[in-house]
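Deliverable D4.2, example record:
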Amino acid sequence: MKKALLSILAFILFAQVLDAQTVVSKNYEFSNGQWYNGKNFTPATWYVSKGVFTKKAPSKIDSVVDLQNRWVVPPMGDAYCMSVADNSMSANQLKMYMSEGIFYLQILGNTKEGRAALQNSLNIPTGADAVFANGALTGTFGYPFLQYEGPANGIRNPQKMTERYEYLKEQHKMLGDGYWFLDSKDAVDRNWAGIKAQNPGVIFIVLHDAEKAGGKESKGLTVDVAKAVIKKAHKSNLRVFAHVENADDVRLALKIGADGLANLPGAEWDGTGDTKMFELSDEDLKKLAKKKTVVIPLYGHAQALGPRKAVQEYHAKTFKRLIDAGVLVAIGSDDPMRTTRAELSYLFNLPDADYATLLKVLCENTPRAIFPNRKIGKIEDGFEASFLVLADNPTNNLLKIRAISFKVKNGVILK
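Output generated by the structure prediction step:
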């Protein structure tokens, strides 16, 4: 066994692509593996040719890799990545994502400078693939105005930002960069060319109690403006993810055609009072499922509150309702310092967590939510040959998804 493992490791090192910009096209046979089929694992042999999966053996096979009965799953994604762009430690963060088997990132909020700094590190053969939203679209002085304007003016402490709020309101250093103020349909028309010029891959809007407080300070867009943004975005073939505050915002997002919810109301509930403003009806869930609206719960945010039983039970119940209704749930972190590790750990520890379901959310739903037009997230003929080889079965213990023997991205074995 030890000799066999050493031979595999030697093969991986030998096959490593030394130049990150170069792809070596080889034909592989991966035999004796337990392959993920969307529900569980099936023993099979798969071939890789020209960077994609095929069940038919190529006429020439360059190398045969014996997987020794290991478990094979598609790579994971982070549908709300916030720890890479505008981070002085971005290089380390990107290495962490790849080491954890997270190949696909959706960055919902970044500056032009933050994106430019990552251009040579993302969307390359040996790095993660990413799509950027660029600046968030909100109402004047709405969220996330302070989060961008504070640091741009040398103020990073949240309490200090609040204390110097009136000063920061006069500073618009990040306007048209980290955020856009859109208070009318005319403002949408005037600014749309500038928004498009930054080449977003997805649009990020803020709906915080939109029907009652839209357009007010610290909130977000009004209903009419949000509707106008989504209409323009869809005409430009851009998806729209909405940051929401309550159940009415979810219903509004559904009504005006948002493609995804960047968070789920109640993610930061502290366990006091009732959950009425967060509760989604069965009809809401049916609509989310029918429209294939992506939902990123962000339940890991509750960890800052400590292990509160009422919160965990509410999250577990809501998560199960989403899954049972067929809603397209994806995993995101919205963490300025970490990967999806905290979110994964929180979901793992929820009461009666179903690891097989969570595995599907991690490896199938999330990558395809980020790149819906790519053949990823499944091990099927013609799909991109990107996968993780695990030393243990993650349906028995979800955290075993971190026990990665080696990784393959688009037919290239990574170091």
